[in-house]
Amino acid sequence: MKIVIDEIHDINVMVCKEITKLVNNTPDAVLGLATGSTPLGVYQNLIDDYKENKTDYSGVKTFNLDEYVGLDIDHEQSYHTYMRKNLFDHINIDLNNTFFPSLENPSAYSELIKEHNIDLQILGVGSNGHIGFNEPYTSFDQETSYVTLAESTINDNKRFFNSIDDVPKGAITMGLKDIMSAKRIILIAFGKNKAQAIKQLINGVEDEAWPVTILKRHPYVTVYLDKDAASLLE
Ligand code: F6R
Predict the structure, then answer these.
(1) From the CA of 35, how far away is ligand 1's center (Å)?
(2) For ligand 1, atom 11: residue with the closest CA
(3) Is residue 197 part of a domain?
(4) Distance separating alpha carbons of residues 119 and 232, to the nearest angstrom
(5) Any idea what the CATH number is for the domain that residue 20 is in?
(6) Cα of 221 to ligand 1 centre, how many Å?
(7) Most informative mutation of 8, 31, 35 for ligand 1 (most atoms within 8 A of CB)
(8) Nearest CA to ligand 1 atom 2
(9) Ligand 1 centre and the CA of 159: distance in Å?
(10) Residues whose beta carbon lies within 6 Å of some atom of ligand 1
(11) Number of domains, the chain
(12) Model pTM?
């Protein structure tokens, strides 16, 4: 596992460059994408790069990690809306090539991922160590499924909603097994509230109580941290 500790601005630029390099070299690249606050700076850099360099996404396919259950896909806080607003509407990607898990057929999403083989998966991490919405004690063999969100996740995400009661209680998420099938993984973590999860990942052992620790098994992971997220590392 490669670990990079740097300023948020520089990490956003570095991850953006990793993505554009892949897309330039592999016009039909398959990207795994995350939502939440962490990747917003990377997406903004991708939009700026597109304006400047016209990086071509017409052959690119994307697989998002997750979507809330109980919100219409056009809801302002749905992850479909997030991706359109923060990336897809600003680059030349074909929306038919952008995929999200759905409640109707979770296992079909795992099958689609197997068929397409994700070249690069971008991940954030929850304060409780979740990746995607795979909450603590999810089996490391889990494929795409419906999940009940942990209390801590509902609390973490209430900042995006008017009140905590508006935060959906469930989601559909790419499974840990699907995430691990990606050829390469970049995990980004900013802020003190991620420091414990990052310590478990880097100084701890594989442990289903901390889903992020499954990444210890992956041969090609880069972890980008700001100083706060790295603050508990030994
Ligand atoms: C989002 C996702 C989640 C987030 C995590 C961190 O698609 O899968 O695992 O990456 O909850 O969220 P932020 O970035 O908002 O701190």
Answers:
(1) 6
(2) 126
(3) no
(4) 31
(5) 3.40.50.1360
(6) 17
(7) 35
(8) 132
(9) 13
(10) 34-38, 65-66, 124-126, 130-133
(11) 1
(12) 0.97
Catalytically annotated residues: 66, 128, 130, 135
Tell the residue nearest (CA) to atom 12 of ligand 1. Answer: 36
Q: How far is the CA of 34 from the centre of ligand 1 (A)?
A: 7
List the domain range (segments joined by +) for residue 15. Answer: 2-185+213-224
Residue 201 resides in a domain? no
By DSSP bridging, strand 2-5 and strand 170-173 are unpaired
Which of 38, 43, 87 best tests ligand 1's pocket when mutated (most atoms within 8 Å of CB)? 38
Contacts of 3 (CB under 8 A, 6+ apart): 202, 222, 223, 225, 230
Digit-by-digit pLDDT tens for the chain (234 residues) are 999 999 999 999 999 999 999 999 999 999 999 999 999 999 999 999 999 999 999 999 999 999 999 999 999 999 999 999 999 999 999 999 999 999 999 999 999 999 999 999 999 999 999 999 999 999 999 999 999 999 999 999 999 999 999 999 999 999 999 999 999 999 999 999 999 999 999 999 999 999 999 999 999 999 999 999 999 999
Task: Count CA atoms closer than 13 A to 120's CA, side-chain side.
Answer: 19
